[in-house]
Amino acid sequence: MKGERNESHFSDGHSSQSVDGRMIVTDGPGHAMSPPVQEPCYRSFWKITSTREVPELGPGPRRGVLPRRELEARLDVWATEQELDPDAATRLRASALLYHDHHDAAHDIVQDLNDVEGALIHGILHRREPDYWNAKYWLRRAEAHPIYVALGRRLPQLVLNAEQQALAKQLTLPGAFEPLAFVDLCEETERRPALDPSVVWLRQVQHAEFEELVRFLVED
Fold first, then answer.
1. Local structure of 201: helix, strand or coil
2. Four-residue CA torsion sign, 75, 79, 82, 88
3. Dihedral (C-alpha) 141, 146, 150, 153: value to the nearest 10 degrees?
4. Residue 26: Cβ-neighbour burial (10 angstroms; 0-12, 13-18, 19+)
5. What is the DSSP letter of 172?
6. CA atoms within 13 Å, Cβ hemisphere of 167
7. Domain range spanning residue 209?
8. Domain count, the chain
9. What is the pTM of this model?
10. Using one digit for the tens of pLDDT, what is the confidence trace for 18-76?
């Protein structure tokens, strides 16, 4: 029996599909998720870390993530090839580990970081754990981060219907995305089924958050 499939299309030509509770982002028929920009470093990061399903709002683990050892080996080679600043490479490693549901390994890195990017990744990690109070504690240190300005501009592209528009309204302040409101929505929808439309859409938003974080780290 074929699985239940729901599909949404982005204004940049990408689409997302929810199949039997699995969230898939594609750039066309038969193509796995790829980023919508051309920067070589950004694109090459996603080439080695992309997954068929975007992360769950919760901890996972979901199907298709890389084992930690394989992921870190890829990241080591990539960081050397890209001649990355060591600080940026460390933060990108934590982001990739978190994207692949290796929460403990990501936490081992971010707990020793004292900058705003470390706080941001730390907050996302605890939001997915889920430890919502702790997530807000760390995200308050990063509320004004440039990625949330970028995400606020990008959010309207993800809105396809009135329900999503209502959620987007809760997630935005004038000129920026509101990360603490995102924590609240994740908590509100925590017990809903995987195919709940709000959960599916919030996973898209979370994936966009990861994309903007990576974009900032490779460009900064």
1. helix
2. positive
3. 80
4. middle
5. E
6. 24
7. 5-219
8. 1
9. 0.83
10. 544 444 444 433 334 444 443 599 999 999 999 999 999 999 999 999 999 999 999 99
